[in-house]
Amino acid sequence: MKFHLRSAAKVNLTLDILSRRADGYHELASVVHTVGIWDDIDIELTKNQAIEFTCNRGDLAGDDNLCVRAVRKWNEATGDKFGATIHLEKRIPTGAGLGGGSGNAAAILLALNRAATVEVTEETLRNIGAKLGADVPLFLRGGAVLMEGIGEKLTPLAPKTGWLIVIKPQESFSTPEIYRLVDEQNRFSGRAEATMQMLANWHRDSLSKLAQEMGNDLQLPAQSVSTLPRICTKILREAGALGAQMSGSGSACFGIFETQLEAQQAREKLESELAKLVPLQNSRLFVAPLCARGIEIMSTA
């Protein structure tokens, strides 16, 4: 069976790091929204158990890619013996805090579930996904989500409409390194203040009000080793963003705009500004809408 799918990116509108558990994982609370920056995935499922994986980016090809690991984890969890030929057309930047790899894994799991003789429940599918990465389950749901625990507890929220500009500097950040800095600097909020504030106003507040309530506990630790988050969020606000911050563990930063026109006009300002700033001269710039899905099945055969 063949599938053509696409998987979205995500941004963390809030990210409160509450504590570090004895097993090394971090308890968190986060309001997350999927964003219409898309990777394309073609997968043909077979019964020969061999997995072939190619990608337009050679540095991402290999058995450790989350697409390959998703097939193996599915077979391990269900007892199926699927093989697969997979091609990933990667557009979402890596090392960015945008969840691109997690979205890819979620897309593969969705295809496997559709092809299986007996489909598993959504809860089971999310549990399989959580074993691949904390962000995988949120892409299976898509839209706006409250994430709790280590990312495995999901509560759906009504999705919002609006537009983002995402800046991905050439420099990428290591998620383990950023969390190491959180531990080293003891930057635990203890309470999910930003998240609870946003949730309290989610259903009644405008996007402009919510944009002012954002917060990310990982941004200050990241700024202790790099000037990029501070520079990016500053120029996004100066370009007219309602609010701006780093997504996840970075290095991507985003600004929120009410309309596509406002975002496009701001992009024009930013393109000339980025050319003047040496640390950002090789940055990638995206204009994209908030979206209600994490994965879309474009065709099957």
UniProtKB/TrEMBL annotation:
GO biological process terms on file: isopentenyl diphosphate biosynthetic process, methylerythritol 4-phosphate pathway; terpenoid biosynthetic process
Record EC number: 2.7.1.148
GO molecular function: 4-(cytidine 5'-diphospho)-2-C-methyl-D-erythritol kinase activity; ATP binding
Protein's name in the database: 4-diphosphocytidyl-2-C-methyl-D-erythritol kinase
Domain GHMP kinase C-terminal: 207-274
Protein residues bound to ATP: P93, T94, G95, A96, G97, L98, G99, G100, G101, S102, G103
Pathway: Isoprenoid biosynthesis; isopentenyl diphosphate biosynthesis via DXP pathway; isopentenyl diphosphate from 1-deoxy-D-xylulose 5-phosphate: step 3/6
Protein role: Catalyzes the phosphorylation of the position 2 hydroxy group of 4-diphosphocytidyl-2C-methyl-D-erythritol.
Catalytic residues identified in the record: K10, D135
Domain GHMP kinase N-terminal: 65-143
Keywords assigned by UniProt, alphabetized: ATP-binding, Isoprene biosynthesis, Kinase, Nucleotide-binding, Transferase
UniProt key word Nucleus: no
Family classification: Belongs to the GHMP kinase family. IspE subfamily.
Catalytic activity: 4-CDP-2-C-methyl-D-erythritol + ATP = 4-CDP-2-C-methyl-D-erythritol 2-phosphate + ADP + H(+)
